[in-house]
Amino acid sequence: MRYTRDNAMAALILAFFACMWFGWAQERPPSSWRRPLLIGAIASVILVVLGARASWQLRSSSSVFSASEASRRYGIVVRVETVIAAVGSTAIFSSGRSEYLAPWICLVVGVHMWPIAAVLRSPSFLVLGGVLTVVAVSAVVVSGHTDVAASAITGAGAGSALACFSGVNAALARWSRG
Predict the structure, then answer these.
(1) CB of 34 within 8 A of CB of 40?
(2) Which of 57, 58, 10 is nearest to 164 (CA)?
(3) Closest-CA residue to 4 (of 174, 121, 124, 127)
(4) Chain centroid to CA 28: how far?
(5) How many angstroms separate the CA atoms of 90 and 72, rounded?
(6) Which residue in 56, 74, 89, 136 could disulfide with 103, CB within 3.0 to 4.6 Å?
(7) Rounded distance between C-alpha atoms, residue 144 and residue 129, angstroms
(8) What is the pTM of this model?
(9) Which among 60, 56, 72 is positioned nearest to 9, based on CA atoms?
C-alpha cells in the first residue's frame, strides 16, 4: 500500500475479521484443531491491538481515503458485497442448506477483495481474494467427503489467511514508521 496508515488499518480490520472466522471455525472441528484455532484467535486479538495502536498513532497521516473518490468507490464495493452476501445467505438458509453459509460468505468476501485491491492500490488484496475464494470452494468439497463441518474448514482457512495478511500489514506499518 502507498500509505503507512492504510497498512495499519488493514492490519486492524483483517485481524478483527480473522478472529471472527476463527470463532466460526468452532462448529464441529476435529479435536486436534481446537488449540490451533485458539492460538489463531489470540494472535488475531494481538494483531487487532497492534493495528489499533498504529492506526491511532497515524490518525493524522495521509491515507488513500483522503481522496473522496476512493471513499466513494470503497462504499459502493462494500454495499454491493453486503447485498450479495445477504441475498445468497437468505437463499441458502431458505433451501435448508445452512451448512454452506460460511463458505458462501467467504466466497463473497474473497471476490470483494479484488475491487478493494484497486481502491487501496494494493495488489496483495488480489492474492488475499484468491486465497479466500479457494478456501470457500475447498471447504465445500472437503466437507462433502469428511465429517468436518464446512464452517470449521472455512473458518480455519479464512481466519489463517486473514491473520497472515494482517501480520504482514502490521509489519509493513511498523517497518515504514521506523
Answers:
(1) no
(2) 10
(3) 174
(4) 21
(5) 27
(6) 136
(7) 23
(8) 0.93
(9) 56
| Alpha-carbon gap, residue 105 to 107, rounded angstroms | 5
Are the beta carbons of 65 and 74 closer than 8 angstroms?
A: yes
The model's pLDDT over 62-112, given as tens digits with 9 standing for 90+, comes to 999 988 899 999 999 999 999 999 999 999 999 999 999 999 999 999 999
Which residues neighbour 32 within 8 Å (Cβ) at sequence distance 6 or greater?
none
Q: How many CB atoms neighbour CB 59 within 10 A? A: 11
Grid look-up 480455519 returns: 156
Distance from C-alpha of 153 to C-alpha of 39, rounded to nearest angstrom = 16
Residue keyed to cell 502507498:
2
Whether the Cβ atoms of residue 42 and residue 159 lie closer than 8 Å to each other: no
Instruction: Give the pLDDT confidence of 44-73 residue by residue, as tens digits.
Output: 999 999 999 999 999 999 999 988 899 999
Residues whose CB is less than 8 angstroms from the CB of residue 133 and which lie 6 or more positions away in sequence, other chains included: 106, 107, 110, 111
